[in-house]
From TrEMBL:
PANTHER family: WASH COMPLEX SUBUNIT 5. GO terms for biological process: actin filament polymerization; endosome fission; endosome organization; regulation of actin nucleation. GO terms for cellular component: endosome; WASH complex. It holds the Pfam family Strumpellin. Belongs to the strumpellin family. This is WASH complex subunit 5. It comes from the Eukaryota.
Amino acid sequence: MAEFLADNNPCGQYILRLVSRGNAIIAELLRLKHYIPPVFRLETKQDQQKYGEIISDFSYFKMSDDFDQKIDKNPQLQDLDEEFRENYSEILTRFYLTFESIHKYVSDLNKYLDDLEEGIYIQQTLESVLLTEEGKQTLCEALYLYGVMLLLVDLHMEGTVRERMLVSYYRYSAQQSHAESNIDDVCKLLRSTGFINCLGSKRTPNYPEDYFKRIPVNTTYVNMVLGRLRSDDVYNQIAAYPHPEHRSTALATQAGMLYVCLFFAPNILHNQTAKMREIVDKFFPDNWVISIYMGITVNLIDSWEPYKAAKNALSNTLDAANVKEHATRYSTRLQKLIPQTRQLLKEGALVEDNVLDHVNKVIYIIRECNVTLRWLMLHTAVLSITSAGNKRCKQIRDQVISDTKYKASEVFELLLNTAEFELKIKDLFKHLLMEKQKKWEACKKECVERMVELSEVFSGSKPLTRIEKIDNLKSWFSDLAKEIETLNHEQITAAGRKIVQMIQALEEVQEYHQLDSNLQVRQFLADTRRYLHQMNRTVSIKEEVLITLQIVGDLSYAWELVDTYTSIMQDGIKQDPSLVIKLRATFLKLSSALEIPLLRINQARSQDLVSVSQYYSGELVAYVRKVLHIIPETMFGLLARIIHLQTSVLKELPTRLEKDRLRELAQLEERHEVARLTHAISILTEGILMMKSTLVGIIRIDPKQLLEDGIRKELVKHIATALHQGLTFNPKAKTSELHTKLEALGKIMDGHRRSFEYIQDYVNIYGLKIWQEEVSRIISYNVEQECNSFLRNKVQDWQSLYQSQSIPIPRFPPVDGQSVNFIGRLARELLRITDPKTTVYIEQMTAWYDAKTHSEVINLKFFSKVSKSVGTAGLTGLDRLLCFMIVTELQNFLGALQKGVLKDKQWVEMFSSVSKGMTPLSGTVSNPKNFYSQFISRAQKVWPQILEWILKIGQLQLLRKHIAYELNISCKFNSKYLASALQTMNDAVLADIEAHYKDPTKPYPKEESPLLFDLANYLDWAGISNPYAKIYITTKNLQYFPLLTFLFVISQLPKLQYMKQLGTLLSRKSQEPLDGVPFVVGVQTVFRQFHPEIRNTFLLYLSQYVKSYVEISTCNKPTDLPGEVVNTLHFMENFVHHSGLPRKILANHIPDLILDEYASVNS
């Protein structure tokens, strides 16, 4: 038996590795079902419009050239296609490799069968392999697992979605075939079957037999496997279920395998009535809902509907009288077993002696419980989507529910009791097995000592009251001591027989030799008999009991069904939090199901063991979290009432208290209510903390961690919902709702934070730490998702550093057409109300004012309000999003110039003639008005678009500057030592870098060192940064760029006028709105992206412009500077100031006389 799977048997090892791989492939399919990119479903109109022309099903193969040409001819489609490839190629490759592994699995199975037939494995044939127990099992499993793979692919990955993914992989993959498998074969195997797993969908004809025929499997092999599954007890399960009524449960695993394998021979299902009757009589005489793999259930009424022979064979089972008989029997058993298990679980019932004396009875009760549970859970389960449309299925289920008087709570109670009972028995037997030898030796020692003492007593050497010397008894007790000494616990049968004989002998010797008269001798004999009884019990402790319990206690059929009892579990926890202790046993019972997929993987010593274990363990842990999440959920419900009482009902006590108002201010009822709610919360937490640390599969569940994760999850849900609902704006509103929304959100967030701080000591968690970590994670995740719209390579949910499976951040559908989430809406609302076309930024007031009404829109305090509502993380996230927007605007601006203006022949010729007319730059232009205006007017069409870009960049920079200021003030106020340390560190690093550039022998941070990256991150969070000095993009040196920008600036300056009272440039006409500060900051930011020489050239052009106008105005009064000159000098002064340059740069380009005159005009 074991020899077939021995390491030196290549025939056994090959099929074992294949079956191991099959289980691993199924685990990967189940894992990947959660990662199907929604875009391949093309469910929304938006997805259809955007991706419809680059995603195709298998119709692509008929018109691949036309499809690809259409994309190649359209630059936009080409760009979208390239972006799509970059974003999805990784996940597509993973899906394809899984699909390919299914094809390779069946190819390897066929190869193995051919090798067996050709005699490559010496002395091994298909028949000889099937004669060995392990060979029979693995060959049956190999076919069955292939069938399960095909069914799972169709169940969880819709045919059209599968086709679209395969086509996309085919188009994007450089290597379209591998040595072992070709993509064409994979596509043929996994093309759409027409099966749709949704309510009301019609059954596909000849499904799934046609699907199973796509790659033919050896017919002889299929028939022999079916023969073995039909006639043999492949897994020797009947030994664990000796009762004839339990036979269908004993063969349930085999029945599931047989169900799947029959689709490889549909002729049996259609026409072979005798065989089908034999199958139904043996496997399905009392059941029609079966589990085929890890809780995936099938209703035979629906599944076998199209098959004549199968349907007829099942009719006896589905006879109303037969259904009623079984339903009534299991209902009666349920009513009997619940009080029985309750009684057995009472304190003192399951003591060691009781259990050892009634081992068979205990196992029988466990068997009865599990058989009853299996039948009731499967046959009362909610119908699957495919079965729900079948009237007969519904009718039979309704009859079962009626006949059993089904109550989910009763079934759940039996499940709970059974799991706890099993766990206690298993723990007891494990302990007894560990202590078996020790106990045996201790009892044997006691017996020997007593026999030796009695021998000495009857020898007369040991004085004992009124005992005569009797040589016969002395010898007899001495011989018995030696006999006991020779007993060996490993020789179970012989030792047991001898012990029984010894007990009888001791009873006889007491009776015949009239030893009853002496109390001490009688006591010695009684003790020896008791110890011998104990030895007899100990010798009967066998590992077979645990193996039987493992087989009988299998709950793999309920891997998915157990979810229907979640609400009952949660209601029970709400009423009595200590129920969690009992639930632990249920979770452990469920974890035993992991052994089914892992058995062969473990035997094959496959590397997949850890990955598959992690998947199933992770799924079970996720379910445990889901059940126990009711505790934090209820907690937060109670917390909401505490928040209301603390913020709205309880009054703050005054410093001086009047005696008459003492009762009124005491608010005893309200304070008692707060205390009661707080106590309720602490009781809930106590419940989960009472659960022991439990190993579920390969993942250890720590109850404290579980509670903390649950609290985090609920907190994340509440905060994410508050942010989503609180930051939704009406774009049609006449006045901005931003202020009121931020105030309301600030109150909500403050309420949550205060209540969280209040409750932390009662639930033993670090409230503030959790609060800061989760708020930061929510903001960072939403910023990441919002920034995806600016990125080519998007960060998917499963790639995100901030998203988590155990504590997921909820995603809400977009509210408007532009923003993905609340952070985007906040940023765009901020941009809308500070739009340079409708507002004016006054630098001295650090505020924006409405251009028409002159009322204040936003001031410096506004950003404190933002900080209160979304925290430091929110401000930093907003800042990061604005950075992305600036990068996009700069790329659009410079990209348009590069591709259009600066490459256009007419433009280049114009710039060339302008440049010649202005040479040398140190000189002046003779007739500046005519000279400049002719070129400005020629470029009139491009100025509005450039102005829009420049103003947008300037506006974004101003907002960033304000955010940095608020962050810095907040950091200095809340953490002055951190602010000082960061500032000092920054100065020190910059000094070191400067020193390195002066002397390259001095140190510089290495490329792999995280110092600069981490420090920059800290500085951004602390607001120790200057947005105006930031380089956002890398640029090439663009010819004529400073000249173009100069012409643009002088074309816009006439629209502005200097307001002495406000000290800024404002728009001359309300019809042509233009805000001076964003304009200057925008131009400065653009030049910051280039080499400083470009900026210097720009300043030289402006200086020449100033000097040229001053020169032609000398005929006027010397005190009057032309308006163009004043505006330009204001612009230059602001430009130099925002660029962080010294003011003397102006003196380098413009004569002191002009600057003095300008200064006198301003004063």
